[in-house]
Every structure is written in structure tokens, then in C-alpha cells.
Amino acid sequence: MKKKHLYLLPVKTPDLSGIKVSKFGWYLGEFKRERFEPSHSFIMALKKRIL
Hints:
By secondary structure, the chain is an alpha+beta fold. The protein has 1 helix and 3 strands.
């Protein structure tokens, strides 16, 4: 959590020596009022459930 924003960070950090990283982790979404609003990239990464 960073303020109202939720991120998913990897359990093990890969060796990033020599690489510039602008954003680390996966932005999941934001808490707005009484609910969670997922990010577009999070929703697009979810697998469709076949019924």
C-alpha cells in the first residue's frame, strides 16, 4: 500500500544490477471511498473463467 494505491511486489527480487527500473511491481488498483477500483492492467491480466 502506498497511500490509497495497492501494488503487488515479487517475493524474490531479481538481480537488477545495471538496469534502470522506473516502476517495480504491479499496480493493482486504488481504494476509493468504501470500495476497491482495480487497475486496467490488473483486469486485463485476469484469466477468463469458463462456465
